[in-house]
Prior knowledge:
Structural class: alpha+beta
Shape: elongated
Number of helices: 6
Order of helices and strands: HEHEHEHEEHH
Largest sheet: 5 strands, antiparallel
Amino acid sequence: MAATRTSKIEELQELEGAFAGTETAILVDYRGLKVPQVTELRRQIRAAKATYRVVKNTLARRALKGTAFEPLTEHFVGTTAVAYSGDDPVALAKVLTTFAKTAPMLQIKAAVVQKRSIQAAEVVDLAALPGKPELYAKLLFVLQGPMVQLVSVLNAAPRDLMNVLTAAEKKRAEAGA
Length: 177
């Protein structure tokens, strides 16, 4: 009995630490998934720099008390797993929604994204947004635009001068010939 109690306390502390260090948590119902499918899902989630964990409902409810993830407590019913990420909520949502298309048994229950509780349908909308790398690329493109225009304007004067000098030299060569 003591060993199981201590293991539960350790698991509770691990969950509390995991929830303290994250901004996004998505609850999924994995009932009906086969082991190779769960393994593939874990691999894809790891690639998105996130974590997937099957949790005991009572321990998860206790771990959520007093955190921003407390609205999720009502969804800890039945087979529940938590996917959480501290970096990019869009990447995690994309992985889960894409995987749910290939394995319809995976059901998204609810989520908390940056201290805001959202429903399963909103997770699909979140997945439709561009990820951080795409947003960084767009921002870089927007910031780079004025600099490119400035360089083009600064290069235009010497280029035009060279064109005028070349045309004048051709005219002299034709006149002297």
